[in-house]
Design the sequence.
């Protein structure tokens, strides 16, 4: 009988024996995979005098950039080949669907001829420096002293290849509609080699390719040339494309932002690792940066000149200054903040704060916002800024610490930013507690207990005379069973936050959030912040972009649709920053409770509708046989809902500004038709029919178009609410006519439950409502808008079922303003 030999278990982690723990999957598949490292096993086992060995001994082992060991470096994203392929497959599917949609609209045939000529000079030749970036990344991967560095560099090179391929697609598609030469490599190469604006950049990338020392090559590529190139050809060029109604190019460039961010993150991590290993490396990095700065900056200044020659030109000096400022912020994130920007960047900002510092200033009273973070560093930087700002403003701070930070790490990091932290702790000006002590006493989350503890803390702090309270905490502890109760806690905060001098920042890890969790977080917060391309940006809760691939696809489609409607909207992050600044002013001047109530009333309907449509879209797409048509229809509804919410948010902000809203000649019948189109699906849900009896030939009036649409939307939504439970189904009628007093009269009539008896006028009082879930702010806001146009708004009961809301706008005053 044959003896069965027992197979010995393989030594899976023999190369990671010094880790002293079970390695992660990333470590297992990344450690020492390069065919050479140090002097083992190759190429240094060969004759040391062979050319290949001489090369490595000189430019890697002989590099002045040294560490005790490079093997402990880790990519902060811990990307493996499998993870990379899966993520990029989703991204490619998004871009392919995006292109299909734009091709269906015949987008490229509609692009302006002048803009195509500009792309021929400004964008298409960029494939050549992109190839140089790719080649340098591959060289960096080949020369890297650790496989962990090699892998990160290879993925970066793959990102560049992806960017080149989509540029080639854009060149080909434009050539089919405009000029066959646009797809010619010979034509584009002549641009690259002969056009004067490209020659400084050409010099920079060609010299970068002969930076043989691996450390200098890393600095030239990842700290100098690539960051400024990406800022020009992704961020600034995307903005220029939007200004020229080329939403396809803008959205394509936006998509590459995630690749760029991943590249910057591992570069920052490598710099920080090297400087921690050998502090002398800091000065070495700075020397190389100063050496490469003139080449890199001169290179981008050449192509930036073309921004001033676009059909809708942008001042080149302003673009160049933005690029330099962004680059300086990136270097500061690397810990190389002693490297100063040039004088032009200094003059732009004066004593302006860095983007991280600004986070602390977002917390005006009544603010309930959230942080989406990918890395531990992002979480730490944001919360330190938040608490530091509070302490400096004589506020009480409560920091509830959870994974991935520990109390010790949080305290040590905050002490670096606030040298006198010990005195603040001694005076109980700040408390740093664990999630287990605050949220999970006894190992269980009790929403009522946490709520009571929070109110007790607020009462205690208010008696001590602090300027206010800042609360922040991580949500990594929230389990699936605790998710709904925790969301209820967040909603409860929204109900009362306007009554206290309180600001709340909640942190959500993208690694543990799916699409539904993100939607819940969006729904229960006023806005979100996230780190993008090394800088912090504010994201509208109705359009939470780039948070996850599913949400990102929907939001970018939203941005494209809104940009088609008006070239002046959805600089989304800039607009939201301005909105938040204005809301901060309002909270210092008015009762936050009233403002919060009005915002909640105005945006609840479209936000809830958007969440429902997003869930529906995802459900159709995740079936065994995806229902693409149904998903597209749900996505279209989502776009309309969120676009409407965005317009309303902008309108609410304008209502509280001191300056006069922008007026223009408006076709009221057209505004009504647009509003009907937006609400048609909502009415259909309850089998309500909408009828428009609009008098033709009415004169245009001088009005704020968005404000009029908001009034109509409020009245129509109220009518739908009044009829949704009626049997037989209700009927909504909108009429327009010119009355005997030369006024434009608009009527909204429903067949619903009618007005509350004896309250035809009281319904326009703030907070009066007959709805179980109403806030009583829609009609007061509508009346204030109509009155700001010199008109009036009133309501009457019908002779039959239902009510009629009418508002009149003066035509003569409009004609005088027009003249």
Sequence:
């Amino acid at each position: 009988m044959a003896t069965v030999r027992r197979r010995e278990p393989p030594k899976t982690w023999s190369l990671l024996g010094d880790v002293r723990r079970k390695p992660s999957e990333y470590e297992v598949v990344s450690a020492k995979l390069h065919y050479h490292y140090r002097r083992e096993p190759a190429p240094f086992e060969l004759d040391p005098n062979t050319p290949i060995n001489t090369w490595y001994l000189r430019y890697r082992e002989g590099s002045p950039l040294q560490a005790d060991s490079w093997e402990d470096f880790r990519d902060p994203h811990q990307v493996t080949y499998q993870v990379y392929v899966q993520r990029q497959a989703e991204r490619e599917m998004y871009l392919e669907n995006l292109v299909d949609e734009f091709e269906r609209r015949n987008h490229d045939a509609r692009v302006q001829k002048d803009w195509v000529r500009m792309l021929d000079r400004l964008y298409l030749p960029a494939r050549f420096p992109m190839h140089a970036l790719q080649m340098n990344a591959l060289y960096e991967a080949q020369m890297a002293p650790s496989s962990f560095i090699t892998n990160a560099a290879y993925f970066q090179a793959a990102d560049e290849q992806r960017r080149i391929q989509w540029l080639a697609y854009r060149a080909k598609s434009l050539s089919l509609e405009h000029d066959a030469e646009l797809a010619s490599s010979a034509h584009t190469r002549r641009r690259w080699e002969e056009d004067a604006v490209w020659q400084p950049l050409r010099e920079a990338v060609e010299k970068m390719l002969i930076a043989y020392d691996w450390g200098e090559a890393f600095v030239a590529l990842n700290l100098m040339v690539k960051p400024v190139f990406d800022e020009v050809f992704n961020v600034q060029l995307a903005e220029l494309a939007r200004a020229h109604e080329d939403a396809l190019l803008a959205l394509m460039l936006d998509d590459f932002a995630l690749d760029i961010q991943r590249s910057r993150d591992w570069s920052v991590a490598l710099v920080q690792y090297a400087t921690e290993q050998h502090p002398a490396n800091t000065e070495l990095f700075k020397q190389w940066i100063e050496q490469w700065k003139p080449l890199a900056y001169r290179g981008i200044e050449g192509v930036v000149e073309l921004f001033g020659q676009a059909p809708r030109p942008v001042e080149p000096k302003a673009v160049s200054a933005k690029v330099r400022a962004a680059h300086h912020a990136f270097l500061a994130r690397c810990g190389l903040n002693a490297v100063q920007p040039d004088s032009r960047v200094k003059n732009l900002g004066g004593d302006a704060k860095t983007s991280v510092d600004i986070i602390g200033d977002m917390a005006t009273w009544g603010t309930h916002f959230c942080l989406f973070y990918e890395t531990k560093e992002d979480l730490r930087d944001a919360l330190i800024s938040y608490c530091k700002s509070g302490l400096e403003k004589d506020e009480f701070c409560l920091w509830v610490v959870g994974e991935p930070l520990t109390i010790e790490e949080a305290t040590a990091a905050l002490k670096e930013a606030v040298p006198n932290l010990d005195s603040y702790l001694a005076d109980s000006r700040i408390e740093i507690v664990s999630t287990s002590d605050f949220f999970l006493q006894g190992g269980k989350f009790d929403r009522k207990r946490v709520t009571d503890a929070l109110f007790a803390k607020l009462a205690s702090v208010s008696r001590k005379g602090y300027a206010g309270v800042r609360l922040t905490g991580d949500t990594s502890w929230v389990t699936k069973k605790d998710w709904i109760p925790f969301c209820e806690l967040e909603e409860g905060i929204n109900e009362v936050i306007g009554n206290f001098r309180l600001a709340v920042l909640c942190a959500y890890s993208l690694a543990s959030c799916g699409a539904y969790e993100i939607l819940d977080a969006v729904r229960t917060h006023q806005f979100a912040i996230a780190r993008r391309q090394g800088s912090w940006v504010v994201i509208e809760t109705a359009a939470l972009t780039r948070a996850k691939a599913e949400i990102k696809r929907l939001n970018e489609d939203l941005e494209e649709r809104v940009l088609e409607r008006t070239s002046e909207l959805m600089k989304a992050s800039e607009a939201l920053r301005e909105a938040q600044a204005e809301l901060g002013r309002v909270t210092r001047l008015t009762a936050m409770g009233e403002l919060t109530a009005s915002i909640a009333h105005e945006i609840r309907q479209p936000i809830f509708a958007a969440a429902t449509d997003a869930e529906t879209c995802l459900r159709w797409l995740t079936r065994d046989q995806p229902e693409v048509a149904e998903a597209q229809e749900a996505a279209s509804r989502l776009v309309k809902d969120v676009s409407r919410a965005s317009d309303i948010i902008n309108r609410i902000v304008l209502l509280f500004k001191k300056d006069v809203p922008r007026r223009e000649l408006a076709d009221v019948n057209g505004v009504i038709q647009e509003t009907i189109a937006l609400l048609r699906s909502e009415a259909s849900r309850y089998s309500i029919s909408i009828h428009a009896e609009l008098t033709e030939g009415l004169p245009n009036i001088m009005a704020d178009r968005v404000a009029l649409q908001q009034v109509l939307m409020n009245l129509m939504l109220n009518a739908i609410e009044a009829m949704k439970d009626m049997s037989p189904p209700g009927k909504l009628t909108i009429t327009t006519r010119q009355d005997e007093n030369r006024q434009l009269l608009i009527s909204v009539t429903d067949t619903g439950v009618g007005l509350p008896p004896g309250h035809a006028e009281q319904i326009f009082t703030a907070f009066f409502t007959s709805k179980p879930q109403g806030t009583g702010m829609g009609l007061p806001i509508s009346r204030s808008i109509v009155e700001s146009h010199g008109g009036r708004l009133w309501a009457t009961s019908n002779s039959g079922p239902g009510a009629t809301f009418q508002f009149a706008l003066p035509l003569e005053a409009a004609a005088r303003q027009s003249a």
The first strand starts at residue 36 and ends at 37. The CA atoms of residues 177 and 291 lie 44 Å apart. DSSP finds 31 helices and 16 strands in the chain.
